[in-house]
Amino acid sequence: MLTADPHALAALTVALAGRDGVLGKLAQTAGPVLLLAGDRDPQLKAIQDTADQISGATCVELPDCGHFETFLRIDLTLPVIRPFLARCAAG
């Protein structure tokens, strides 16, 4: 944290503070919502709770992943995302 960009940290703080507004908008969405979370993610419970608050949302727990690994592990995410998008396209 000491070497982090203070402007980036400020932006992150503002974004996290607006999380409830984002959840409200997601809850109103007409389309399907897919949430991915690593089983070692400290935010896993919050992500699962978010999915529970959104009608029709799907939350997939990825094994042996922390928070940022969900962005890096395409070997785990693509097999989840591709069928989800195919179902969305099929209507």
Explain this structure.
There is one protein chain. The chain has 91 residues and is of the alpha+beta class. The protein has one domain: Alpha/Beta hydrolase fold, catalytic domain (Rossmann fold, 3-Layer(aba) Sandwich), CATH 3.40.50. 57% of the residues lie in helices and 13% in strands. The protein contains 5 helices and 2 strands; from the N terminus they run H-H-E-H-E-H-H. It has a two-stranded parallel sheet. Strand 1, helix 3 and strand 2 form a beta-alpha-beta unit. The protein starts with 5 loop residues before the first helix and ends with a helix.
Labels describing this entry:
single chain, AB_hydrolase_fold, AB hydrolase-1 domain-containing protein, 91 residues, globular
Biggest pleated sheet: 2 strands, parallel
Overall residue-averaged pLDDT value: 83
Helix/strand-derived category reads alpha+beta
In one word, what is the shape? Answer: globular
Instruction: State the CATH class.
Output: Alpha Beta
Tally of discrete structural domains: 1
Strand proportion, as a percent range, falls in: 5-15%
**Number of continuous helical runs:** 5
Order of strands, main sheet, comes to 1-2
User: Can you give the helix content as a percent range?
Assistant: 55-70%
Separation of the first and last Cα atoms: 44 Å
Question: Which consecutive residue ranges, at least 5 long each, have pLDDT under 50?
Answer: none
**Would you identify the CATH H-level superfamily?**
Alpha/Beta hydrolase fold, catalytic domain
SS elements, strand count: 2
CATH architecture: 3-Layer(aba) Sandwich
What would the CATH topology be?
Answer: Rossmann fold
